[in-house]
Amino acid sequence: MRRLIIDTATNALSVALIDRGGLCSQFHEIVGRGHAELLMPVIAGMDGGGRADEIWVDSGPGSFTGIRVGVAAARALAFAWGARVRSYSSLSLVAAMAKEASALAGQNVIVVALTGGHGELFWQEFDRESLRPRTAAASTPIAALALETGVEVIAGTGAEALICARGHGDALILHPDARCAPLIPHDQVSEDRVPLYGRSADAQPARPVGQL
Prior knowledge:
The chain has 2 domains: 2-89 and 178-188, 2-Layer Sandwich (Nucleotidyltransferase, domain 5), CATH 3.30.420; 91-172, Nucleotidyltransferase, domain 5, CATH 3.30.420. It is globular, with a radius of gyration of 18 Å. Helix 1 packs parallel to helix 2 (64-81). The chain has helices at 35-44, 64-81, 90-98, 142-148, 159-166; strands spanning 2-7, 12-19, 22-30, 54-58, 84-88, 109-115, 120-127, 138-141, 153-155, 170-172. Helix content is 25%, strand content 27%.
């Protein structure tokens, strides 16, 4: 069983190819907005052109464009290779990455905060031991979230902004890393490939001329 993992939901472009449980090829870089141009060449440069029996893709929440790029690539490659596609949440992945961090010693809850848009953070709370979600994923203004959560250590790309707004605690800055996706509990990896954007699109349909 070869598994290709694609993660483009945040500023990181992260891809891993896992063969029989072992890491075969990997790429992880903070690229900002370059996912569309870089993703397919990165996959093509992997062992065997990245060909796999199963493809996992980060379906969000995160960047609208980044999520669409990853999901579209996963669907296209699955069609070409006859592969199965599964998806996972960016928040679940970061929670799994944070679980063993020494910074969380004595803390039974993992709060993940990822950078959103318009001064908001995508966030979710997980049980540290089981990695089961304790809350639903949400997008909340930073100032409001600072009043809502008192957990000392926050994990994710939005952790520093939340800690600064709150005035106390520690930030464990983590970008989703495809190599760590196998750490996600199996029941949090889904057959549902519908993107989870986390908030409404910034762009709005054009209004007819003369309509306010």
